[in-house]
């Protein structure tokens, strides 16, 4: 019986730099829904704002400007320095929409992988 030899696989042609921050941002937003109106909500705002700006930077690098605009809007709404004071149902809805945006941006922002030098 012939044994199969392991062939090295080709590296992926795309890299998704925004995937990890997108997942972390969505998880923070989902966990932050329980903390709306509390003292810890400021920490959630800092995390969401920072991750949104990181994803916006990756979107600019990938030349997918529309995601940079979406992430900048999220960073403005969750800005901890000058916070918005929405009612709890509006914040809950905003958390769900922003979590979906984080996941979509993380999955859809990609750049071509450059060929490694031989």
Mean pLDDT: 88
Neighbour order of strands in the largest sheet: 1-2
Structural class: mainly alpha
Number of β-strand runs: 2
End-to-end distance: 35 Å
Helix-strand string: EHHHHE
Low-confidence stretches: none
Instruction: Give the C-alpha Rg.
Output: 18 Å
Shape: elongated
- Count of individual domains: 1
Oligomer class: single chain
Helix content: 55-70%
Helical segment count? 4
Described by strand count, sense and barrel closure, the largest sheet is:
2 strands, antiparallel
**Percent strand:** under 5%
Salient structural properties:
DUF6804; membrane; transmembrane; elongated; mainly alpha; 118 residues
What does this structure look like?
- The structure is a single chain.
- This protein is mainly alpha-helical and 118 residues long.
- It has one domain.
- 58% of the residues lie in helices and 3% in strands.
- The protein has four helices and two strands, in the order E-H-H-H-H-E.
- A two-stranded antiparallel ribbon has the order 1-2.
- It is elongated, with a radius of gyration of 18 Å.
- Keywords: Membrane, Transmembrane, Transmembrane helix.
- InterPro entries: DUF6804.
- Pfam families: DUF6804.
Task: Reconstruct the topology from this structure.
Blueprint: E1 14-15, H1 19-32, H2 41-61, H3 65-77, H4 88-108, E2 111-112
Antiparallel strand pairs: 1-2
InterPro entries: DUF6804
Keywords: Membrane, Transmembrane, Transmembrane helix
Transmembrane segments: 18-36, 42-60, 65-82, 88-110
